[in-house]
Amino acid sequence: MKFVIFLAIFLVVSIEAHEPIKTFEQFKKFFNKQYSNPSEELLRRKNFEKALKYVEDHRGVKITQFADLSQEEFKSKYTMNAKTYANLKKKNFYGYGYCKINNKDLPQSVDLRELGHVTPIHNQGSCGSCWAFSVIAAAESAFLASNISVNLSEQELVDCASYNGCEGDYTETGFEYMMKNGVVTEDVYPYEGYETGCNEYNTKRYKISSYCIVNPKNDNEMKQALATTKSAISVVIDIGDINAFRYYDGRTVIRYDANYGQNYHAVNVVGYGSTQGGVDYWIVRNSWGEYWGDDGYGYFEMHKDLM
């Protein structure tokens, strides 16, 4: 079997809902938070109180598992650093060519969740492995589009494809590794959330044959890719308002970005649609667990370079 993975460098953003958390005690219990000493707990409480004030003062956000982290801690653990992204943009992805996609009459909406072409939401933890999760999610979706259900190992990419997989890397690194070596399944090489050293398991491996570029500035091409392949697109997003992103509640379409700074994160586009009010949006899959956004997914306005 041959599988084509669509890679795009695309600027986007994310969304969710549950019973709101109002106190630090609720937060600790819900997310099973434990701290090493009273001094650390006091620091985490102060961070939580700042987060709670932000959530109370803004719409479209909620307390998430990140509320006890300072902004700098969150950025260092969960986003791609600016240097990695700058090097990523210099890479010659275009040497692999743009995807050859024939235009077709587009459906009004596509949602790979409804087609069963996405695997369950995963959680990268505090390892900066979003690049690996984005690559694996795209590969798993492509396999599902060919009626093959498989749960692949992000940990293998973290340990074997990259020198420092928890410090961020290029999505290209993961795709190249999968083309050359393939990866084993999650049950063989489970995710640990930290670098463990490369283990080369002599068992069945799942490869991709190639990947290609979808023009991130062409909404129609992105939609054609989703409608034609019925598989997820790997993208890198540029987040301006980091607090709006980490506390995103999934109830609305993100339409504005205060653009306070540059913070990068690898995710997947898994569909598109329009609200009753006529706002076109992308459906974006994240790797921060099901509590973030709408059970791990977000909705970002189309036609804009948001976040």
Description of the molecule:
It is a single chain. Strand 5 (263-274) and strand 6 form a beta hairpin. The chain starts with a strand and ends in a 6-residue tail after the last strand. The chain contains ten helices and seven strands. Strands 1, 2, 3, 4, 5, 6 and 7 form a seven-stranded mixed β-sheet that branches. Residues 1-6 and 8-17 have low confidence and may be disordered. By secondary structure, it is α/β, with parallel strands linked by helices. Helix 6 crosses helix 7 (154-161) and helix 6 crosses helix 8. It has helices at residues 24-30, 38-57, 71-78, 82-90, 112-115, 130-145, 154-161, 171-180, 219-229, 242-246, and strands at 4-7, 110-111, 210-213, 233-239, 263-274, 280-285, 297-301. The radius of gyration is 19 Å and the shape is globular. The protein has two domains: 1-68, Orthogonal Bundle (Helix Hairpins); 85-301, Cysteine proteinases (Cathepsin B, Chain A, Alpha-Beta Complex).
Write the topology of this structure.
Elements: E1 4-7, H1 24-30, H2 38-57, H3 71-78, H4 82-90, E2 110-111, H5 112-115, H6 130-145, H7 154-161, H8 171-180, E3 210-213, H9 219-229, E4 233-239, H10 242-246, E5 263-274, E6 280-285, E7 297-301
Parallel strand pairs: 1-3, 1-4
Antiparallel strand pairs: 2-5, 4-5, 5-6, 6-7
Q: Any key phrases for this structure?
A:
Cathepsin B, Chain A, disulfide bond, single chain, zymogen, 7 strands, 32% helix, Peptidase_C1A, Helix Hairpins, 7-stranded mixed beta sheet, 13% strand, alpha/beta, signal, 307 residues
Short description:
With 307 residues, the chain is α/β, with parallel strands linked by helices. It has 10 helices and 7 strands.
